[in-house]
Amino acid sequence: MRLEGKIAAITGAASGFGAAAARRFVAEGAKVVLGDIQLEAGQAIAEELGDSAVFVTCNVTKEDDIANLVDTAVSHFGKLDIMYNNAGIVGAVGPIATTPAQEWKFTVDILLNGVFYGCKHAARVMIPQGSGSIISMSSTAGILGGLGPHCYTACKHAVIGLTKGVAAELCAHNIRVNAISPAGMATAMVANVSTGDPGAIEETKKILAANSPLKGRPGMAEDVANAALWLASDESGYTSGHTLTTDAGITVGATTNPIAFEEYQPLFREAGKSGLE
Ligand SMILES: NC(=O)c1ccc[n+]([C@@H]2O[C@H](COP(=O)([O-])OP(=O)(O)OC[C@H]3O[C@@H](n4cnc5c(N)ncnc54)[C@H](O)[C@@H]3O)[C@@H](O)[C@H]2O)c1
After folding, report:
1. 3-class SS at 183?
2. Cβ–Cβ < 8 Å for 20, 86
3. Is residue 216 within 8 Å of residue 153, measured between CB atoms?
4. 179 lines ligand 1 (CB under 6 A)
């Protein structure tokens, strides 16, 4: 019961990471307000979670919808301890020279402006409360170039920047602000990109397992939910402004081919000797 007595709001809670976090948070004693544009799927998860969850329609491109999500947490459950800015799409794809400006702006609206609204309205209620944990979804594409489309990469980098800036401001109010950067994980988003079918989660796990530095181990929505759980709980009480990767070490150079690494070691040792002479 690591979140006993805590109230959370989660955007994009009808699928993938958001749904997994809702289930994990409730299993750990939290009550959760689920926000999403997918009405039926969101309501189904709220029903599954019973009295511990309530669903509201929330389009993260609309500031009023996010304000309502936050206000629902306060009116229905009494306060807001955890704000999880998770909703996202892949968005504008293709070469920079031909990316349509409208698609770019639409993507920024969801991936960056939605996170800004989430931080803003969470701060509105958390500052008077004098406590809170804000978690925003970045990506390995928020750390390295070339892992996602241009707009996605730019927005996910910006989420890390926003996280640092807001963390620096809100520490004075005992509010912690952190981000999560997953690699490709088995959710509807990646299933759609990998197979063309958002429902093909099992097939996606096999594809991810074959490409994982942690041999045979795909990244799963539950891995990200566990990272969010730690950032949401008091166990991370002295951590703010941090970006927690759930990427099997990809952003620090882990590869699917450790044999190559072993082959390099003797060469490194030889090179090191010349430095010692
Ligand atoms: N799956 C991955 O490998 C991966 C890796 C890194 C980062 N991410 C990020 O994680 C977050 C969640 O992705 P996921 O993999 O769970 O995808 P998903 O498609 O399973 O879930 C995303 C949810 O966001 C909702 N959503 C989309 N647009 C919205 C809007 N305008 N307002 C409110 N809700 C909206 C969708 O309806 C859906 O329920 C996204 O921000 C994504 O960029 C995913």
Report:
1. coil
2. no
3. no
4. no
- The CATH class of the 7-185+220-246 domain is alpha beta
49-69 core/surface letters (b: 16 or more CB in 10 A; e: else): beebbbbbebbbebbebbbbb
Q: Which atom of ligand 1 is least distant from the CA of 111?
A: 41
Q: Which atom of ligand 1 is nearest to the CA of 184?
A: 3
- How many percent of the chain have pLDDT more than 90? 91
**Over the chain, what is the mean pLDDT?**
96
pLDDT for the residue 262: 77
Q: For residue 214, which of 180, 248, 250 has the smallest C-alpha distance?
A: 248
Burial-class residue 44 by CB neighbours within 10 Å (0-12, 13-18, 19+). Answer: middle
**Residue 155 pLDDT level (bands cut at 50, 70, 90):** very high
- From the list 15, 31, 136, 152, the catalytic residue is 152
Band of pLDDT at residue 276, cut at 50, 70 and 90? low
* Residue 84 annotated among the catalytic residues of the structure: no
Domain ranges of the chain: 7-185+220-246
Q: Is pLDDT above 80 for 260?
A: no
DSSP state letters, 193-219: HHHS-TT-HHHHHHHHHHT-SSTT---
